[in-house]
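note to self — DONT lose this again. spent like an hour looking for the file last time. sequence + predicted structure for the chain T wanted, 196 res
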Amino acid sequence: STAVEPYRLVIHLVLALVLYGAIVWTGLTVLRPTPMHRPLAFRLRPLAFACAGLLALTIVAGGFTAGTHAGWDYNTFPLMDGQIVPDGYARLTPFLRNLTENIAAVQFDHRLLATATALTVALTVLVGFALRLPLLRYFALALFALTLLKIVLVDMSSVQTGYRILSFLAMGLLLLGTSVLYGRLRPSHLESNPTK
């Protein structure tokens, strides 16, 4: 069997995240030994740290989701067996065991963290647009495109057909609305502001 105990899987995942973070940090330090001093960019720093922290927690929760095979039991979104919070969320004692061993709680927590991460990233992108920093804006749009590609190629592969169709329609409407908004705002609001 290729099954791995969830705790070992998550420990491996956490160590990989720490190693990856150290590599990225070192690479960015080599790329820019002295930090850029952009007063407006510092406003994004707390949001960027919140995004990174939520993303790391979501990845760790995903390790428990994968390790317990929770995705096989609850593969509809946003409801889990017709409810937002599934039955049996806190059935194990002590309560902390639910966070790592209870399939319903593991899947719900992963969904909650993923949704919070998505909302925080969206807020960060909106603040970035408001600050009119073109490099950050293009980076955010590229990251958004990569995220959508991952959702389409990986995440939607196990979703039921009806939900997949609805998800693609919603995503299409979201992208269309975003592109229309971006096109209307771009000439007057999105160019770089040299005075800031």
